[in-house]
Amino acid sequence: MAKNILKVLIIYLVFGSNSFAQEKSTLQIKELVETYKNDIRGPYYRIKWFCKDGSIRDAKDPCPDDIEGIQHASFKQSALDLRKTNHLYFGEILAATKTNEFLDANHNYSRLKQYQIGKYLASINNGWILRKGQYYRGAIQSEDEETWGKYFFETVLKDDNFLKTNYYLIRQALKDIPHNGDTNIGQLMRSESKILAEEIPSFMDIRIKIHGNPQKTDINLVEHFIQKNDSKLSLKEKKDLKNLIVTMEQFYAPLDFNKIDKELASLNGNAMVVEEIKNFSTYFNDNNSSKKIVENSASILANIRGTILEFKSAKDRLKLLDISNQLENILLIETQNWKTVNLEETIHKIEVLTCASLGAGLLEFWEYDQVENNLKSGTNQENITIEELNNVLNTSRSIVEWSASLIKANYNEDVLKYNEFEPLAYGFIDDRVRNSIALSLGETVSKLGTFVAQVSNINNKVMSIDNQSAIRGLNPGYAFGELVVVDGNPDAIEVNTNKIYIFQNPPSDLKPVAGIMTVSEGNLVSHVQLLARNLGIPNAALSNENLSALKKYNGKKVFYAVSHKGNVILKEEDEMSNEEEKLFEKVERSKNMIEVPVDDIRLDVSKVINMRDVDATDSGKLCGPKAANLGELKQLFPDQVVEGLIIPFGVFKSHMNLQMPNENKTYWEYLNATFKEAATKKKNGSSDEIVEQYLLTSLEKLHKSILNIDLDKSFVKDLKSNFQSAFKNDMGNVPVFLRSDTNMEDLKEFTGAGLNLTLFNIKEEAKILQGIKRVWASAYTERSFKWRQKYLLNPENVYPSILIIPSVDVDYSGVMITKGINAGTDNDLTVAFSRGAGGAVDGQSAETRLITKTENYLLAPARQADYIRLPNYGGTKKYYTSFDKEILNDDNIDEIRKIASKVRKKIGEKSEDKNQAYDVEFGFKDNKLWLFQIRPFVENKQAKSSDYLNSITPKISNSKEININEKI
Fold first, then answer.
1. How far apart are CA 679 and CA 821, in angstroms?
2. Is 537 left (phi over 0), alpha (psi -120 to 50) or beta?
3. 723: part of which helix (H) or strand (E)?
4. Per the CB 3.0–4.6 Å rule, which of 63, 387, 796, 925 could disulfide with 958?
5. β-pairing, 856-860 with 866-869?
6. What is the rounded distance in angstroms from the CA atom of residue 849 to the CA atom of residue 393?
7. What does pLDDT average to over the chain?
8. Crossing angle for the helix pair 290-307 and 314-337, to the nearest 10 degrees
9. What letter would DSSP give residue 44?
10. Per-residue pLDDT tens for 11-55?
11. Which residues contact 193 (CB under 8 A, 6 or more apart)?
12. What is the rounded distance in angstroms from the CA atom of residue 484 to the CA atom of residue 496?
């Protein structure tokens, strides 16, 4: 009996503890959130005493006199469990938290960020999980919270590296964590106005004004609204409106310079920045010009950031950062009052606000250095050409995007996590942007953009929305279809081939669409961008404000076009011209479609091939172009290409000739019968949707069946032998990549980039063998099939080979196109790089550069906080990075120029088109360049030659000069 009880206990400890630690589902978390909202104590359990000796006592049993302690709520077990299972922290009580645990550095400061998100949700949703719990007396003691906050900052600010690499985050944390009697007044003002607009629809215009263009005169608007609507407003509504006025008066209250002067007196560090702040304080009332105040405060913000490490005391750093936040608030107010009158002043204001963005942590110093001279060049001469003016505008737009994307890079991972169970969380990033210099900077750049559009004749015609100058085309093309506006996580959306999508950022595994617009464009050389360029899919970037304005057109049929110069047209169906309607008259499927040649395919070769034994001429015969081209590169650059093995088409075909379970036919016969039946259905009048659904259902069955196919024993033996000969080790001891490589990639008019599966860093023998089946099966996934079906005449004739190469744990990796894209010339290089493996190809916000023979220009810095490395034990390991250092160094850029020159010479001379550009994937490990893939860079010829696109492309006189004193 005792033994049985012991067995039960052991089983409970082993299995019970595992189930206890099992991650909660989204549904479970949603239910828990609703439970907390309706509980008078929220996530809290009881009020307890927490004593310094570690003991916890009931509320009526305080800590002994000789032992200090604090009193606050304890947490319900469900809230504590959620911390362990999902790393979610609700209703945080700071005084109960250890500094390093709250900072949560190992999870990219997630717990700190969750605290900020929680504060935001509470401000816009009546306390959120504390809807009733916020009235639980004694749960949180404000004095203890503030004491803890001060200790927290004085602890973390001792760390020079943390302050240097997380400057934006720490300044934001100062706005949310109580430490000197302050609160985040700006956020409170916006949330109060938002709630009022939801309750009083006629207040919406004032709410929009407060959120988009805040000024002190907004107080008068609210006061007038109360007077005008006095008889219609309830007592509660009047009270809430008056509370908003009090909040606004606090927000717009003048700085307490006496307090600032006292703080400055005790600071010990860089004397110049202290003196600069003193002068600003002394002469503030004398220099009451908004322009002067913005200029001086921007300079101080930048100088505080540049010299803060010279202040060795954490207390001094805390005082200085608090002053920095106060000055930023003054700047945000005064920049709205600075109305520029001419071109020179507008460019100068952009320059000043760029400096302020640096000081606020939205730009890094090395990024600022890259753009500073370009902005100054716009105001140091009497006249400026259209070309120079467009360069200034493009630089200015970039600064706005970089600033806003840094905010997103800091918080996006945690916001998306919260968005799964609380959709209101998605507004957090927008709220941060609106309370930042990026908002005013964007407005000023938009004003410049409107002027440049007028003088250079590049005008967007996007419905009737405001601030269209923020919209710019990335890839020419035209489309007609239903407009779908996605203001949330794009991965949750099931896209349709015939629709036009507007995303916050493009999903990395995007299925075919008619057209696309994105707030965050990812990078110019991601697989999504290359597919769009290859297939003539119109593609443009727009602002978050533009996306919001276009929501009202969601679900409407629209015409969408992007010209060769990047101007964008978006109009409703009934506004289309006859010429535009004719673009979509039904044509035979064969037009603009591609047939993949299979006449020369070698299905008789069913042995594993050493990559050294193939070259580019074997593409489409023995294997796909990845393997064939990498074999060619191995011959040309033996020291910069790894060894490799190829599983040719013939091995795949021999396995497809096996009997498919429960079908009384082989896998290959099943595949061909599926397409034959689809053709019959189409011939008999079935709709395209019905035929496609039949194909997808049948291919899904094939996909699952291939995953369970029995690999031929002689093939496995052959593969093991080749592992030993090529990689000098047994299978299972060498981590490798398995790369799908079909005969339907890198065709003259179809790239197929990223459509099939690549498996990263697999080491175990069983996982490699199963991975082979997964890669074969990936040719029949919905996404892969839909892209092929849309552009290929014979998508059924897909043959996957597999390229096996040993993993290289690169420090950073990316893609090079051997020509300028959207900037530069055909002689330049466009390069995008991210840290770790798999850089840039999946749409990461990568460091993007235009490299010429003598210069290199930053097109965009990296804004991807996470990256992966390839450990020797297999699999991937996630890391986080800051943005204070550029990825590519000068030596790397020289190496890139050299390898591009050799590729053009050695590969290009064998091409039919001597001017062929190439798409090259590569990486650096300890500053050594490794080549992983090369393919022709394919652009859509139809889009390039389209008469319609040519007709809407403006003729620009780049040499025309504009006087910089011209009114704007």
1. 40
2. beta
3. helix 713-727
4. 387
5. unpaired
6. 18
7. 88
8. 150
9. E
10. 444 444 444 469 999 999 999 999 999 999 999 999 999 999 989
11. 203, 206, 207, 210, 211, 244
12. 10
DSSP string covering 605-627, please? --S-EEGGG--GGGBTTTB-HHH
User: What is the Cα–Cα distance from 498 to 63, expressed in whole angstroms?
Assistant: 69
User: Can you tell me the distance from the alpha carbon of 41 to that of 43, in angstroms, rounded to the nearest whole number?
Assistant: 6
Whether 115 contacts 92, CB under 8 Å: yes
pLDDT tens digits, residue range 479-536? 999 999 988 777 667 778 889 999 887 665 667 788 999 886 555 555 556 566 666 7
From start to end of 374-437, where are the E strands?
Answer: 383-385
Specify the pTM. Answer: 0.83
Q: How far is CA 727 from CA 644, 668, 736, 762, 808, in A?
A: 8, 33, 10, 14, 13
DSSP state of 31: H
DSSP collapsed to 3 states, 198-251: HHCHHHHHHHHHHHHCCCCCHHHHHHHHHHHCCCCCCHHHHHHHHHHHHHHHHH
Q: Closest Cα to residue 453, out of 393, 401, 521?
A: 393
Residue type, 734: V
| Closest to 844 measured CA to CA, from 507, 551, 433 | 507
Residue 62 token pair: 């305080």
Spatial separation of the C-alpha atoms in residues 242 and 124, rounded to whole Å? 17
Query: In sequence order, which residues have a C-beta less than 8 Å from that of residue 297 and are 6 or more positions away?
Result: 280, 327, 328, 330, 331, 334, 356
pLDDT of residue 944 exceeding 60, the answer is no
Quick check: 50 and 70 in contact, CB under 8 A?
Answer: yes
Rounded to 5 degrees, what angle do the CA atoms 848, 854, 858 make?
A: 20
Integer Cα distance of 936 and 112 in angstroms: 46
Place of tokens 């590969």: 907
Using DSSP bridges, classify how beta strands 539-541 and 515-518 pair: parallel, antiparallel or unpaired.
parallel
The angle subtended at Cα 771 by Cα 763 and Cα 535, nearest 5°, is: 120
How many C-beta neighbours within 10 Å does residue 235 have? 7
* Cα gap 308→269, rounded to integer Å: 8
